Amino acid sequence: MLSEQPVADRSSFWLDRLSASDIERGMELVTEVGWNQTPADWAMMLAAGDGRGIRTPDGRLIATSVAMRYPIHSGWISMVIVDPAHRGQGYARRLLEAAVQGLEEEGFVPALDATPAGRAVYARLGFEEFASITRWRGWGRGPKGRAPVGVGEVDQHARSRAAALAAGYDMRVPLSRIAARGWTWSNPGKEAFAWARPGRAATHLGPVVSQTDASALALCEEALEQLSGPILVDVPDQQTALSQFLASRGFSRERGFHRMTKGQGTSAGLSDTLRATAGPELG
Prior knowledge:
Elements: E1 6-7, E2 10-17, H1 23-33, H2 39-48, E3 49-55, E4 61-70, E5 74-82, H3 91-105, E6 109-114, H4 116-124, E7 128-141, H5 156-166, H6 172-181, E8 183-186, E9 192-197, E10 203-210, H7 213-226, E11 228-236, H8 240-248, E12 252-261, E13 274-276
Parallel strand pairs: 5-6, 10-11
Antiparallel strand pairs: 1-2, 2-3, 3-4, 4-5, 6-12, 7-11, 7-12, 8-9, 9-10, 10-13
């Protein structure tokens, strides 16, 4: 049984499945490390994936991970968090090994966004970097207290087109769930899309997918005119037009991510149409 597996030679700690009852503790860990996810994000990821955690002898959750399955055999690993008081014990590695094993046994190719600190850990497990991403932080110009207008939910056919433009894997399910509690913008020809959702400490703008720079920038401009408060945008470094646009709007670079995969190679890179990602938790 999964819950009977010892961790780091300490049989009193065990690996266990996560459920909705763990979201409250998951949010405590998110807050401790300063991440931006919300209870709704946790619920969305656990519904779409396989959450695992490490528990102390009394059942307290001290580390987490989530492995989601996307169509076309792509797996996404995220939410690898270890309570600061329990770091250095091999818990993150154990969770990663379990996530990778589960995905590969089902024929999925593991992928993730690594922080600079985690990059070496993933490399030792066989992950290779194929793209770099920068998180930009800034402020929306919209009136406080007024909800963005956007275009509401887009139909399934439009989501399919957006998913095809995005990152080489089918994100229709997470895009639908993002839209259900956030905002969507699209151009008249339904060839460019932008999503935004509320976060714990800032609104996350992304993914943004578009066939042209001009359409992507126009949608981002529209979103920034409606959104208020702090905003995060995760932009692939190859998307220089959007990076320059955000800098011109007062955004600053906050941190970097390294997009990595295991077992697929790194030659493909990110699609040119993926202007901003859905965040390290979703890909």
